[in-house]
Specification:
Blueprint lengths: L2 H20 L21 E3 H4 L14 E3 L6 E8 L2 E6 L4 E5 L7 E3 L2 E3 L8 H12 L3 H5 L1 E2 L1 E7 L4 E7 L14 E4 L15 E4 L8 E7 L6 E6 L4 E5 L3 E4 L2 E4 L4 E5 L8 E3 L6 E4 L7 E4 L5 E5 L6 E7 L2 E7 L3 E4 H4 L10 E8 L2 E6 L1 E2 L3 E6 L4 E5 L3 E5 L6 E5 L3 E2 L14 E7 L2 E6 L5 E4 L4 E2 L3 E3 L7 E4 L2 E4 L3 E6 L8 E4 L5 E7 L2 E6 L4 E3 L4 E7 L1 E8 L4 E2 L7 E6 L2 E5 L7 E2 L9 E3 L3 E5 L13 E2 L6 E6 L3 E5 L7 E2 L7 E5 L3 E5 L7 E5 L5 E5 L3 E5 L7 E4 L5 E4 L3 E4 L3 E2 L5 E4 L3 E3 L2 E2 L15 E5 L7 E4 L2 E4 L4 E3 L2 E3 L2 E5 ...
Parallel strand pairs: 21-28, 29-36, 40-42, 41-43, 42-45, 43-46, 44-47, 45-48, 46-49, 47-50, 48-51, 49-52, 50-53, 51-54, 52-55, 53-56, 54-57, 55-58, 56-59, 57-60, 58-61, 59-62, 60-63, 61-64, 62-65, 64-67, 65-68, 66-69, 86-90, 87-92, 94-99, 101-105, 107-111, 113-118, 120-125, 127-133, 135-140, 142-147, 148-151, 153-158
Antiparallel strand pairs: 1-18, 2-3, 3-4, 4-17, 5-16, 6-7, 8-17, 9-10, 11-12, 13-14, 14-15, 18-20, 19-24, 21-22, 22-25, 23-24, 23-26, 26-27, 29-31, 30-32, 32-35, 33-37, 34-35, 38-41, 39-40, 70-75, 71-72, 71-76, 73-74, 76-77, 77-78, 79-80, 80-83, 81-82, 81-84, 84-85, 88-89, 89-92, 91-92, 93-95, ...
C-alpha cells in the first residue's frame, strides 16, 4: 500500500471516529438551572406511536407493554393491523388449564375432528368466557373481534374462528423460536398460517407451557405449546398449561399512552414498565389551559370529583386532584417544578377500568389566583381568573367580624406581579390592575379581636381598635377571652366614672413602656376576677396602672385568679415609675404579683403599691390569696424605693410578701426617708425581706408606725420593724426573729415593753386565753411550705395564766434572764441505751413518755423525731445521738443529752460477686472442677456437669465478719445460718465432634443414577450424619446447593454434617468428587410413502436423552447437503438423525435412506359451501384435491360467467372449484349452488341471572344487547301461577317466580326477535335495625316501654319472669328481674325475627324507719345489757321484720357489738327487712352512754425502809377491789425538807440514798374508775468494795480493741491508760502496737465510797497486713522470675528461680507493708502461668479517617485530617499512603479513598472512606453558560466535543509525524 493511500485511510478513520463521537447523545454533567425535557416515546406515546412497537426482535423496532383488564394485567404490543394494535398477554390470565379433559374425537361443524382441534376444544370456551369475566363492559367495547385461521389435521383443512380473545398460533417445524397472533392467511395451505404478527420467545413470560391453538401435525392427541423462553413443543391435550391469549385493541378512542399509572391520589406517580392508556371521553372531563408564561394551568368545567391534572416530563409524572374553576401552579404539582415548559399535561378520570383524558391547551393570557385564608371574605370579584390579557376583575376582600387588618398589612402581600392594592381600611381592601405574569397570592393572616365585651354598646360606651379596648362610659362590663396570649390592652378612660369590670381568662403581654391595663386615676373601679387572668408589661409600666390617685379608687374582688409580671420600675398593681399607687383595695381573688420580672439590677417597684420612687397611700387588703414579689429596692406590698411613703392596712387574706433585695416585704422601699404606717388587724401573713430592710416595716431609718392587732404573722428573715420603727402589738401570733432591727422593744398600748413567748399548740387551735384575754391567729404559721401551729406571743414581764383548750398552766417570768422559762428535766446520758446498730440505721432503746412530754431523738441536735430509729445512715460512720423531752402545754422542750456510736461496715464491701469462666465438657465433669473466687464454695461440689448453662448454689461464710460488718440487705444472707447464698451461672461448652470418611473415592461416569452417599464414622457425637450436595457453578468459583444426590456430569462436593447433641458441637466435613460424561447410542429408520401422502414419522431410539430433542435433516444424496425440509418429490432420500450432547453425554449422528413413489390425483373432498346471512361474513367454499391448489370462482347463473368476486346481496348463487392438471396429476372441476339469506336480529341479556331478593322495590328492566332491527325493545312481565304464566301489568316487587319477555319487531333488513328469561324474587332475610332495649323502673311507677326496630314488619313485645320461661303480652308489675322479647311475624316477602331476651329490673320501692322521740337509753354500768323492742320505732313501707344492731365507739370509730353492757358510748340502729316490693331500710342511729363505777386499793407491807445496796426498793404488797385494770407503782422523791416536803416523780423504783414515797395506782378499766394510795420510806448510805478484779486481754493492731473488765459493788468503773506503769493515765485507748497499762477507778458518791485498782499490763501486737493479690502473671518457659516485675512492696524470695514446666505454678515472695511499726513483714505465694516462651507481640497500627462531603468544584486533599498511630512506633501519620482515590471533584457522586500504613515490623492496615461530591447550588446569573457569547461554538456541558477535538488533534499529529518521517527517509 503506498504512503498516500495509507495517509488517506488513516485520515478517514480518524475523521470517522471524530464524527462518530460527535454524534453520541450529549448529556450534561454540569447541572445549571433545572430545565424540563419532554418525555420520551417510551414514557409517553401517541396512538400513532403505539403502532410502531412490536414483539419481533428481527425488525429493529422497540417492544412495549400496556395495562388492560383485571389486576393490572400487562400486554405486549405485538404489532399493528387494520389501523389498530394487537396485544399479547405478558403473563397468564389463567394457569393449569387443560386443552381438553380427554383424548376422544369430537364433532365440529358436522365433521369429526381430533381432540387437538382448537375450534372444538374446551380451552376455546374457557378463553371465550374470559372475554366477559376478565374485562369490564367498557373494556370489552374496546376489544375488536378477530377472524383467525387454524388447521384441522384430521380433515387436512383450514378453518376460521372469530372471537375477541384467542390463543396464538405456532409451528413445531419452524424451530419453534416464535409464535404469531393477529389475522393470518385464509389460504388452505397450512404453511401460510404463521404469517400473522410475530411474537419472539423472549416475550413468552416465565410461566412454563403456554397453550397455542395449533395442533401437532402427527400426534392426533397432541396440541402445541410454547415453552417459556425455549421453543414450541407438543404435549397431550389433557396436560395442563397456561392461558396467554391475544386480542385486537381498537385505537379509535385512544388519545395517548403514558408510563404514568392512572391517578388515584395526589403526588408523584410511579413510572411503570407498561403504558396506561388514556381514552377520549363521551362526556366532557373539563378544560385545562396553560398560561402564556407556562407557570400555571387554569382548570374549568370539571364535573367529576375524582378528576386529576397530570403533568409528565422526562424526569417523572405528578398528579393533583382538581375541582371546577381552579388555578394550579407548577409548585402546586411538585416542588421540583418551576414551569410547565416541555411538559405533557392533561386532565383525567378513571371509570369502569378505563382512564379518560383531555389534553391541556395553550392559552394567551395570565392566570390569577388569590388564596384567601380564614377570617376574610370575598365580597366582590373572583379569586380565580383564567387567561387574563388586560385588567383583572377587581377583587374586594372584607375582614370578618371580630377581626381587623393590622397596620401595614397590605405591605406584606407577596407576588402581586403587576397588580396593586387600593381602598385599604381596617375592615378590607381591593385588588386591581393588569398582571404582568401569573399571579399566585396567599393573603397573610389578619388580626383577631381578642376581647369579647359584654355590656354597653360598641363605639358608644366602648371602642375597640388596633388591639386597644377603651371603656368610656359608666356601667358594668365583662371582658373575656380564651386564655391565649395577646398584645391587646385595656384602657379605662376618665369618662368611665364608676362601675364594675369583670375580667375572665385574659392573657395580655405588651411591650416596652406599655401597660396592659391602664385605669384613669379619677374613676371608682372594681375589677372582678373570674377564671385565670395574666398581665405582663415588658418594662417601665404597671400591670394594672393606677397612678397618683387622689379622688379615685381601685378595688380588686372576685374568686378568679390574676397573675401580673412587670419590670424596670412599674408596680404589678399601682403606679408606674415615679408614680404612687394610692387608694387600692384588695377584697378577694387568687393573686400572684411579680414586679421583679426577668430584668436583674434594674430599679424596682412594689407588687402592690408604688412604682419606683412611688408611694402607697390608703392601700387596704381585706382578703384573698396574695403572693407579691417586689422589684429591686422596693417593698412587695407598699412603697417603691427612694423617698416614698404610705399607709397600709391588712384586715385579712393569705399573704406571702417577698422582696428581691433592699426593701421591706410589707412597708417601704430602700432609702425611703418618709415614715410609713402599717396596720395589721388579721390575715395569715408570711414576709421575707431577704436583706437591707425589715420583713415588715421601713426600708431605711425613718420612724415608721407599725400596729399589729391580730392575725398570723411569719417573718422569715429579719423581723418586724426597722431600727427606728415604733412597733405596737395588741394581738396576733408573731413568729419573728426580732422586733426592730436594733432590738428596739415592742410595746403595748400602755407603753409597756413586751417579751416573746412560744406556746406549743399540738391541737392546732386558733384561739388562746392569756390572763382571761383572747388571743387569736388566722391559721398556722407557714414558712417554706411547713406549717407551725404554735402561738408566738408578746407579753409583759410577769407571770401569765395561759389556757389553751381545756389545759391551763402558768408562764413564769424569770427576771434574771428576762425570758419566760421552766425547770429543766432529769435526763442524763446514762438514760440513752443503744439497742442495736446496723450499717444504715441505729436503734435507741425507747424512753417512756413522762409528765415532761414524749421523748424525741436527733442526730444533729436540731431536727428531732419521735421515732427511736434512725435510718438511711452511712455505713462505718460515727454518729452522735441526742435525746430530749419534747415538752407539752406545761413544759418547754428539755436540754438534750447525747452519746456517740458508730454504724457497722456494709457487708457488701467484702463480698465479691461469684462468677466462673466457661468450661469445656468432658466425661466425669463435676462442680468441684470449676474454680470459685476466694471465700465462696459450692453447696454441692459433687454435682455432675453436662453441656449447657445452669445455675448452681454457692455459699459464703460470714461468721468471722459479723462483729464488724452488717450483712442485712446483702442478697442471699441468712442471719440464722451465718451464710450468704447465691446462684452462679455455670456454662459448660460443648466438645468438638470428629467425622471420618471411610469411602476411598466417589468419582464415577454418568449413568442416570445418583451418586451413593459415602460411608462415614462419627466419633463422640450420638447423632447420625446428614449429607448436603453441592455443584460447582459455571464460572468454577462458587458452590451451588443441590436438592438431592447428583447424577449429572460435573464437579461436586458432599458436605457431611452431624447435628449437635447435648454435649457435643455440630460437626462438618467436605468430600470432593467428579461425574464424567458418557458416550451416547442412537438408531433411526423411516418407512417409504407415496407422493402426496403424509410423510411418515422417523422411528428413533437413544441410550441417553429425550428423542423429542433429536433433529432430523434430509438430503437426496448420502453425503450431500442436508436440510430440515421434509422431501415431497419422488426419489430415494436420506435422513440424518442428530442428538446433541449435553453436560452428561456426547453428540451422536446416524444416517438411513427411504423412498417416495409417484401417485394419481383425485378429489379428496367434494366441493361444498354453506350459505350465509346478509351482512354476515361470507363463508369460504371448501374442496380438496389429492394434489394441487383449488381455485374458487362465482356466478349468479349456473352456466354464466364465473369470477373471483364473492357475492354480497341476498339471493341464490353458484360456486366453481377448479384444480389445474400437472405432469403428476390430472385437473378437476365442480359446481354447486348456495343462498345468502336475510339477517336475523339478536337479543342478548347482558346478565345471566337477574334474580333478586325482596327489598320492597319493583325489579328494574334488565339490560339487553340488541344487534339488528332498529325498533325499540319492549318488556312484558309474567308470574307463575301454578298452571302457567299469568301476564302482569307492571314489573313485580313481591316474592315469587317470574319471567320477563324482551321483544323487538322486524324492520327492513332484519327479522324481528324476542327472548325471555325466568327469574325469581326470593324472600328477604330480615334483620334488626335497632336492637331491643328497655329501661328499668321502680315498683309503683309507670312501666317503661321497650324499643326495637326491624328492617321489615311491625315489632311485638312479650314478657316473662325467667329468661327461658313463657312470654306473654302482659306487662309485669311486681319488683324483680324480668325479660322482654321483640318479634316480627314472618310474611311471604320476608323472614320473621325474634330477638334474644333482654333483662330489665323493676326496682323495689323505698321503706322508712326511725326511733320514737321518747326513747332514751342512757344508764349507769350494772352488768345488764340494754334492751330495745319494736314498739320503740315508727316504720312505713315494707311488712318485713325489725332487727336491732348495737355499735360501740372505740377510738373515734364505731364497732359492731352483740349487746350494750359494758361502759362506753353506744348507738343502736333499727333495720326493717325488705319484702317483695319494698327495700330494707336502716334508721338513723340513736346514741346513749353507760358510765363507770368506782374502785379501791390498800398497801399491806408495813415498811420499805433499807440501807443502800445498789438495788431498787422492792415493790410493796397491796390489795384491790373494783377494777381489774393494771396496777401502776409510781415512785417519788422528797426534794424539799422534812417540814416542807416536795415530792417529784421518779422514772423507776429508787436505789440511792434519800427519802421516798411509793404511790400504788389502780388503773380503771372499761367499767370502773381508777384508785390510788401512798407509803413513805428512807434509803441510807452504804460502803463500797471490788466484786471483780481488773483484767484485760491484749489485741492486734487495727483490730477492735478489747475492753478491760472490773466490777465494783457500787458505781460505774472508769478505765484509764498509760504507756508506763507509773506514768500519766488518760481515758484515750492506745492504738499503736506496744506494751501499755490500764487502771480501774470508781468515783465515790453520796451512796457509796470511791475505789482505785493497781495497774495491769497488756500488749497490742503487730497486725498481719492485708494486700491485693497479684494475679495474671505470665512467664516464658525456662525464664527466671526476675523477668517479672512485681508491684511495689513485693519481692521474690529467690528471683533466680526458673520455670521449666508449663502450667500454673506457685512461687514465694516477701510483702513489706508501708507501716512496719504496726504491721508484720510476711511471706506470700503468687501464682504464675508458665507458657511457651513468647515472641514479642507487634500490634497492628490504626488509621483515623472518616467519611467526607464536598461540593462540585471544591479542592480535595485526601490526606487532610487523616492520622495513623501504632502502639510500638507511635505516630505514623507521615507513613500513610493513598492506594486508591476515585474522587472526581467535577462530577457529583459517591467515591472511595483507600489508605494504607505499615509499621516498622511490617504490620500493615488499610482503611476505606466514602467521599460524597454534591452538586453545586444553582446560580443562573453566575454559573449558567452565556450562550450569546459562544460565537457559534458548541458547549455541551460535558467532554464529548472536547474528546472529538482531542481525537482530531491526535490524528493530525500522527499524520504530520508520519509525513516528516517519510520526508526524512527520502532525504536519506
Amino acid at each position: 500500500m503506498n504512503q498516500r493511500s495509507l495517509m488517506k485511510r488513516v485520515s478517514a478513520v480518524l475523521m470517522a471516529a471524530a464524527l462518530t463521537i460527535s454524534t453520541f447523545p450529549q448529556f450534561h454533567t454540569n447541572v445549571y438551572a433545572a430545565e424540563n425535557q419532554l418525555p420520551t416515546k417510551e414514557q409517553f406515546a401517541t396512538a400513532e406511536e403505539l403502532k410502531t412497537f412490536d414483539t419481533n426482535d428481527q425488525d429493529g423496532k422497540n417492544p412495549a407493554k400496556v395495562y388492560f383488564g383485571n389486576n393490572d394485567q400487562q400486554w405486549w404490543i405485538a404489532g399493528s393491523q387494520n389501523e389498530n394494535v394487537t396485544l399479547f398477554a405478558a403473563s397468564p390470565l389463567e394457569i393449569s388449564v387443560q386443552f381438553n379433559p380427554n383424548k376422544d374425537e369430537r364433532e365440529y361443524n358436522g365433521q369429526t375432528v381430533y381432540s387437538n382441534h382448537y375450534g372444538a376444544s374446551d380451552i376455546k370456551g374457557t378463553v371465550k368466557g374470559l372475554e366477559t369475566s376478565y374485562f369490564t363492559h367498557a373494556e370489552q367495547v374496546l376489544m375488536n373481534e378477530t377472524t383467525i385461521h387454524t388447521n384441522d389435521t384430521k380433515n387436512s383443512s383450514v378453518y376460521s374462528t372469530t372471537d375477541k380473545l384467542y390463543l396464538a398460533y405456532g409451528e413445531y417445524y419452524y424451530d419453534g423460536q416464535y409464535i404469531t397472533v393477529g389475522t393470518n392467511s385464509s389460504d388452505n395451505d397450512i404453511q401460510q398460517l404463521s404469517n400473522g404478527l410475530r411474537v419472539d420467545k423472549s416475550y413468552w413470560g416465565n410461566s412454563g407451557h403456554l397453550w397455542l391453538r395449533a395442533p401437532h401435525m402427527t400426534y392426533n392427541n397432541n396440541a402445541l405449546v410454547a415453552r417459556s423462553g425455549k421453543r414450541v413443543l407438543n404435549t397431550d391435550v389433557d396436560s395442563r398449561g397456561a392461558l396467554v391469549p391475544a386480542f385486537e385493541l381498537n385505537l379509535s378512542s385512544v388519545i395517548f399512552a403514558s408510563a404514568a399509572p392512572a391517578a388515584t391520589s395526589e403526588g408523584t406517580l410511579a413510572t411503570n414498565d407498561a403504558f396506561t392508556l388514556r381514552h377520549k371521553s363521551q362526556t366532557d372531563i373539563g378544560i385545562a389551559t396553560i398560561s402564556q408564561a407556562k407557570g400555571s394551568i387554569a382548570v374549568t368545567d370539571v364535573t367529576n370529583e375524582n378528576t386529576y391534572i397530570v403533568v409528565q416530563n422526562s424526569q417523572g409524572a405528578w398528579a393533583k386532584k382538581v375541582s371546577s374553576n381552579d388555578v394550579v401552579f407548577a409548585s402546586d404539582i411538585d416542588s421540583s417544578l418551576t414551569s410547565f415548559e416541555n411538559c405533557k399535561i392533561w386532565l383525567e378520570t378513571t371509570s369502569d377500568g378505563i382512564t379518560y383524558a383531555e389534553e391541556a391547551t395553550q392559552g394567551s393570557g395570565h392566570n390569577v389566583k388569590v388564596n384567601v385564608g380564614e377570617n376574610l371574605t370575598v365580597t366582590d370579584g373572583n379569586t380565580l381568573q383564567a387567561n387574563v390579557s388586560g385588567n383583572i376583575t377587581e377583587i374586594t376582600i372584607t375582614v370578618n367580624d371580630g377581626y381587623y387588618l393590622p397596620d401595614g398589612y397590605t405591605d406584606t402581600i407577596q407576588g402581586l406581579n403587576g397588580l396593586n392594592v387600593k381602598d385599604v381600611t381596617q375592615n378590607g381592601f381591593t385588588i386591581t390592575g393588569t398582571p404582568t405574569s401569573d399571579v399566585n397570592i396567599t393573603l397573610p393572616a389578619v388580626g383577631k379581636e381578642y376581647f369579647t365585651v359584654e355590656g354597653g354598646v360598641r363605639n358608644q360606651e366602648w371602642t375597640y381598635s388596633n388591639g386597644v379596648l377603651t371603656i368610656q362610659k359608666p356601667g358594668d362590663y365583662k371582658i373575656s377571652a380564651d386564655g391565649s396570649e395577646s398584645n391587646n390592652r385595656i384602657v379605662v378612660a376618665e369618662e368611665f366614672k364608676s362601675g364594675n369590670i369583670t375580667i375572665e381568662n385574659i392573657n395580655l403581654k405588651v411591650g416596652y413602656n406599655i401597660s396592659p391595663f391602664e385605669v384613669n386615676n379619677t374613676v371608682d373601679l372594681t375589677i372582678i376576677l373570674s377564671g385565670n387572668n395574666k398581665l405582663y408589661s415588658e418594662a417601665i409600666r404597671a400591670g394594672i396602672e393606677f397612678n397618683d390617685s387622689t379622688t379615685g379608687h381601685l378595688t380588686i374582688d372576685g374568686t378568679g385568679a390574676l397573675e401580673i409580671r412587670t419590670s424596670e420600675g412599674g408596680a404589678a398593681i399601682g403606679g408606674a415609675p415615679h408614680k404612687s399607687g394610692n387608694n387600692i383595695t384588695i377584697k378577694n381573688g387568687n393573686i400572684k404579683l411579680d414586679a421583679f420580672g426577668q430584668v436583674a439590677n434594674q430599679p424596682g417597684a412594689a407588687g402592690i403599691g408604688g412604682g419606683y420612687q412611688g408611694s402607697a397611700n390608703n392601700l387596704v387588703i381585706d382578703g384573698g390569696n396574695i403572693k407579691a414579689l417586689s422589684g429591686l429596692y422596693s417593698a412587695a406590698i407598699g412603697a417603691g424605693a427612694d423617698n416614698a411613703y404610705g399607709d397600709i392596712t391588712i384586715n385579712g387574706g393569705t399573704i406571702i410578701a417577698e422582696t428581691s433585695q433592699g426593701g421591706a416585704a410589707i412597708g417601704s422601699g430602700y432609702n425611703c426617708q418618709n415614715p410609713i404606717k402599717i396596720t395589721i388587724n388579721g390575715g395569715n401573713i408570711t414576709a421575707n425581706a431577704k436583706q437591707y430592710a425589715a420583713d415588715i416595716g421601713s426600708g431605711a431609718d425613718q420612724a415608721s408606725e407599725i400596729n399589729i392587732n391580730g392575725g398570723t404573722i411569719t417573718c422569715e428573715t429579719v423581723g418586724v420593724g426597722g431600727s427606728n420603727d415604733n412597733v405596737v402589738i395588741r394581738g396576733g401570733s408573731i413568729k419573728s426573729p426580732v422586733i426592730s432591727l436594733e432590738n428596739k422593744p415592742a410595746l403595748n398600748d400602755k407603753g409597756e415593753q413586751l417579751y416573746p413567748i412560744t406556746i406549743m399548740n399540738e391541737s392546732g387551735l386558733n384561739e388562746i386565753s392569756i390572763d382571761g384575754a383572747q388571743f387569736t391567729k388566722d391559721g398556722n404559721h407557714i414558712s417554706n411550705n411547713i406549717e407551725d401551729s404554735a402561738f408566738y406571743l408578746y407579753l409583759t414581764e410577769e407571770d401569765h395564766k395561759v389556757k389553751i383548750g381545756d389545759k391551763e398552766f402558768v408562764a413564769v417570768w424569770d427576771n434574771d434572764s428576762k425570758q419566760f422559762i421552766q425547770k429543766d428535766y432529769p435526763l442524763s446520758p446514762q438514760d440513752i441505751q443503744i439497742e442495736k446498730v446496723y450499717k444504715d440505721r441505729i436503734v435507741i432503746k425507747s424512753i417512756e413518755e413522762s409528765v415532761y412530754g414524749k421523748a424525741e431523738y436527733s442526730l444533729d441536735g436540731k431536727n428531732y423525731q419521735e421515732s427511736n430509729m434512725f435510718t438511711g445512715l452511712e455505713a462505718d460512720t460515727e454518729y452522735t445521738v441526742y435525746v430530749r423531752y419534747k415538752g407539752n402545754n406545761s413544759y418547754v422542750p428539755s436540754k438534750p443529752v447525747s452519746v456517740t456510736t458508730k454504724t457497722l461496715k456494709d457487708g457488701n464491701g467484702i463480698v465479691k460477686e461469684p462468677s466462673v469462666k466457661p468450661t469445656v465438657y468432658h466425661d466425669g465433669l463435676k462442680l468441684s472442677d470449676v474454680k470459685l473466687p476466694n471465700g465462696w464454695k459450692w453447696e454441692n461440689e459433687e454435682t455432675s456437669l453436662f453441656a449447657g448453662t445452669k445455675n448452681h448454689s454457692v455459699l459464703f461464710d460470714t461468721t468471722n465478719y459479723e462483729a464488724e460488718y452488717d450483712f442485712t440487705g446483702v442478697d442471699g444472707y441468712s442471719a440464722d445460718n451465718h451464710v450468704i447464698q447465691r446462684t452462679v451461672e455455670v456454662e459448660v461448652q460443648k466438645a468438638e465432634t470428629v467425622i471420618n470418611v471411610l469411602t476411598d473415592s466417589m468419582d464415577k461416569d454418568y449413568n442416570k443414577n445418583p451418586v451413593n452417599a459415602p460411608e462415614v464414622e462419627v466419633i463422640g457425637n450420638t447423632n447420625s450424619p446428614t449429607f448436603e450436595w453441592f455443584v460447582i457453578d459455571s464460572d468454577g468459583t462458587s458452590w451451588l446447593e443441590c436438592d438431592e444426590a447428583p447424577k449429572n456430569a460435573g464437579k461436586y462436593k458432599v458436605v457431611i454434617k452431624v447435628a449437635a447433641d447435648d454435649n457435643y458441637k455440630s460437626g462438618e466435613k467436605e468430600v470432593l468428587f467428579n461425574i464424567s460424561k458418557a458416550d451416547n447410542e442412537l438408531t433411526v429408520s423411516l418407512n417409504d410413502w407415496v407422493y402426496g401422502e403424509k410423510a411418515n414419522t422417523p422411528n428413533v431410539t437413544a441410550k441417553f436423552g429425550d428423542i423429542e430433542d433429536v433433529v432430523y435433516t434430509y438430503s437426496s444424496e448420502e453425503n450431500g447437503k442436508y436440510t430440515t425440509d421434509i422431501p415431497t418429490n419422488v426419489g430415494t432420500w436420506y435422513i440424518k438423525a442428530t442428538l446433541k450432547g449435553t453436560d452428561n453425554y456426547n453428540d451422536v449422528t446416524v444416517i438411513e435412506n427411504f423412498n417416495i413413489s409417484k401417485a394419481t390425483n383425485t378429489w379428496k373432498e367434494d366441493l361444498s359451501i354453506t350459505g350465509w346471512t346478509y351482512n354476515e361474513k361470507a363463508n369460504t367454499p371448501t374442496a380438496k384435491a389429492q394434489f394441487g391448489e383449488v381455485t374458487f370462482t362465482y356466478s349468479s347463473e349456473e352456466n354464466g360467467t364465473y369470477t373471483s368476486k364473492v357475492p354480497k346481496n341476498a339471493g341464490t348463487y353458484y360456486v366453481k372449484a377448479s384444480v389445474a392438471g400437472t405432469k403428476n396429476y390430472t385437473g378437476l372441476e365442480s359446481v354447486i349452488s348456495f343462498t345468502i339469506a336475510k339477517a336475523d336480529t339478536t337479543l342478548t341479556f347482558e346478565k345471566e341471572n337477574i334474580d333478586k331478593t325482596y327489598d320492597k322495590n319493583a325489579i328494574s328492566e334488565p339490560m339487553v344487547t340488541k344487534n339488528g332491527s332498529g325498533n325499540d325493545i319492549v318488556f312484558e312481565w309474567y308470574i307463575a301461577d301454578g298452571n302457567g304464566w299469568q301476564k302482569l301489568d307492571n314489573a313485580p316487587s313481591d316474592v315469587g317466580a317470574y319471567k320477563v319477555v324482551a321483544s323487538v319487531k322486524e324492520d327492513t333488513n332484519y327479522n324481528g326477535a324476542s327472548i325471555e328469561k325466568e327469574f325469581s324474587i326470593s324472600m328477604a332475610d330480615n334483620k334488626w335495625t335497632k336492637e331491643l332495649s328497655i329501661k328499668d323502673w321502680t315498683y309503683g311507677e309507670t312501666a317503661s316501654a321497650p324499643s326495637a326496630a326491624a328492617k321489615y314488619g311491625d315489632v311485638v313485645y312479650t314478657y316473662s319472669n325467667s329468661k327461658d320461661g313463657t312470654y306473654t303480652s302482659d306487662v309485669p308489675v311486681n319488683a324483680g328481674t324480668w325479660y322482654v322479647k321483640a318479634s316480627v311475624a314472618e310474611t311471604a316477602n320476608y323472614a320473621g325475627l325474634e330477638s334474644a331476651p333482654v333483662s330489665f329490673e323493676i326496682k323495689k320501692a323505698d321503706s322508712s324507719i326511725k326511733f320514737k322521740d321518747s326513747v332514751a337509753l342512757d344508764k349507769v354500768y350494772d352488768t345488764n345489757a340494754v334492751v330495745v323492742t319494736e314498739e320503740q320505732v315508727e316504720k312505713t313501707g315494707s311488712t318485713g321484720t325489725v332487727s336491732f344492731t348495737f355499735e360501740k365507739k372505740v377510738n373515734d370509730e364505731w364497732k359492731t357489738v352483740e349487746s350494750a353492757t359494758e361502759v362506753g358510748t353506744y348507738r343502736v340502729t333499727a333495720t326493717l327487712a325488705e319484702d317483695n316490693n319494698h327495700t330494707s331500710v336502716t334508721s338513723k342511729p340513736l346514741e346513749f352512754t353507760i358510765t363507770k363505777a368506782n374502785s379501791a386499793v390498800t398497801i399491806t407491807t408495813p415498811s420499805l425502809d433499807k440501807a443502800y445496796d445498789g438495788n431498787a426498793v422492792t415493790t410493796p404488797e397491796y390489795t384491790i377491789s373494783g377494777s381489774d385494770g393494771n396496777v401502776t407503782i409510781k415512785w417519788q422523791e422528797n426534794t424539799g425538807s422534812v417540814d416542807t416536803p416536795k415530792w417529784e416523780d421518779l422514772k423507776s423504783a429508787p436505789s440511792t440514798v434519800g427519802t421516798y414515797r411509793v404511790v400504788v395506782e389502780l388503773a380503771g378499766n372499761d367499767n370502773y374508775n381508777p384508785a390510788s394510795t401512798t407509803s413513805d420510806f428512807v434509803i441510807s448510805q452504804a460502803t463500797n468494795t471490788w466484786t471483780e478484779e481488773l483484767s484485760i486481754t491484749g489485741w492486734t493492731y487495727n483490730e477492735k480493741e478489747n475492753v478491760p473488765t472490773a466490777k465494783a459493788q457500787f458505781g460505774d468503773v472508769t478505765f484509764t491508760y498509760s504507756s508506763e506503769e507509773n506514768g500519766t493515765y488518760t481515758n484515750e485507748v492506745p492504738k499503736n502496737a506496744g506494751t501499755y497499762y490500764v487502771k480501774a477507778t470508781v468515783a465515790g458518791t453520796e451512796n457509796y465510797t470511791g475505789l482505785e485498782s493497781t495497774p495491769v499490763a497488756f500488749e497490742i501486737a503487730k497486725a498481719i497486713p492485708a494486700y491485693e493479690k497479684v494475679t495474671g502473671l505470665v512467664l516464658g518457659q525456662g525464664q527466671a522470675l526476675s523477668k517479672i516485675e512485681l508491684p511495689e512492696q513485693f519481692k521474690w524470695v529467690d528471683e533466680t528461680m526458673t520455670a521449666d514446666e508449663l502450667g500454673t505454678h506457685t512461687f514465694k515472695a516477701v510483702y513489706t507493708p508501708e507501716d512496719t511499726a504496726n504491721y508484720q513483714t510476711i511471706e506470700v505465694e503468687i501464682e504464675v502461668e508458665v507458657v511457651p516462651t513468647p515472641v514479642a507481640i507487634n500490634h497492628v497500627p490504626t488509621i483515623n479517617a472518616s467519611d467526607k462531603t464536598i461540593a462540585v468544584g471544591d479542592k480535595f486533599a485526601p490526606l487532610k485530617d487523616v492520622t495513623a498511630n501504632d502502639k510500638e512506633d507511635g505516630d505514623l501519620t507521615s507513613k500513610i499512603k493513598v492506594i486508591k482515590n476515585t474522587v472526581d471533584t467535577k462530577k457529583a457522586g459517591t467515591y472511595e479513598v483507600t489508605y494504607q500504613v505499615t509499621d516498622s515490623q511490617g504490620a500493615s492496615i488499610t482503611k476505606t472512606i466514602k467521599v460524597t461530591v454534591k452538586a453545586a447550588p444553582v446560580n443562573p446569573g453566575k454559573d449558567k453558560p452565556d450562550n450569546d457569547k459562544n460565537n457559534g461554538s458548541v458547549e455541551t456541558g460535558d467532554r464529548t466535543n472536547l474528546l472529538l477535538w482531542e481525537v482530531m488533534l491526535i490524528g493530525s499529529s500522527i499524520i504530520l509525524l508520519y509525513s516528516l518521517y517519510r520526508k526524512k527517509r527520502k532525504t536519506q
